[in-house]
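Run log // design_07
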């Protein structure tokens, strides 16, 4: 799905993390809500979510968040 997300106009980035106890999280960032909606309703994404519910996961959650502030610090 990472490769598919990258094709959505307005895609910014995707990062995936896995914990030692098998928990997983993907953080997918889009420029705006239109891009997010395109991703959320993409037929291949929807089919993969359905397959995940039927074959792989007994639970998952989704959070759609808006960034209110973002900054970085870099020590030179």
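design_07 sequence
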């Amino acid at each position: 799905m990472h490769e598919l997300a990258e094709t959505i106009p307005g895609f910014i980035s995707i990062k995936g993390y896995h914990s030692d106890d098998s928990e997983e999280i993907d953080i997918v960032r889009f420029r705006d809500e239109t891009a997010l909606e395109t991703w959320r309703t993409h037929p291949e994404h929807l089919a993969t979510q359905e397959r995940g519910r039927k074959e792989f996961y007994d639970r998952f959650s989704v959070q759609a968040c808006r960034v209110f502030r973002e900054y970085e610090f870099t020590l030179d």
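The chain has one domain: 2-56.
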